[in-house]
Amino acid sequence: MRLSNSLIIGTAAIICTALISFTISDTVQQVQQQQRTVVVKGLAEREVAADTAIWPLPIVHAANDPTEIYRNLANDMAAIKAFLRENGFSDAEMTVSAPAVFDKAAARYSDYDERKDFRYSGQQTLTVYTEKVEMVRTVRQQLSQLGQQGVALGGSEYEHAVEYHFNGLNSIKPSMIEESAANARAVALRFAEHSDSQLGKIARAQQGQFSISDRDSNTPHLKIVRVVSTVAYQLVD
């Protein structure tokens, strides 16, 4: 009887050990299978036209009488507004900053010389904020008309350059994300083919940040929108 019990216990132990070994082996194989992944990146890129323009038009005057500066600024500003209205811009698209007049003689570290320098300088800026991007590009070529009226625009080209923006990102986001994911999958399929494997499920995925940049320095009104998706796929035999 004791021998029979020992035999039963021994047999059960052997079976349990075999089952545990099989389970561990199967688990290890599954883990190894899951660890076989390929990480790929998919790029989506679009060229789009800017839909908003911010156009600053600064004016600067100098004189020894501050009232003369205020008067000249007001006259120039009226001429600029008239010019813009004639070319299709509305008052709602124009914003005028307050005039700023600077007294050089009152400045603490000024090198003002009353024998050769104007004591006062003043500046004011009219900014056009509009969705009429092509109109801005066209009208900018006609600024000489203001010069013929005696209006001299101040500031450097860099400081007062037109800013072009694209605000329609949300309308193209879904299709670009889909495109970047499809491009990533195409790369993964080629990798799997070359490694004699099959492409499995997605292990993990990460969508990159959207970026918007000028297409080139000569056409800032044209933008390049980019996004890169990073996807990890499982590889199966």
From TrEMBL:
GO terms classed as biological process: DNA damage response
Highest taxon, organism lineage: Bacteria
Cross-referenced InterPro entries: 26kDa_periplasmic_antigen, SIMPL/DUF541, UCP029033
Protein name per Swiss-Prot or TrEMBL: SIMPL domain-containing protein
Organism: Pseudidiomarina taiwanensis
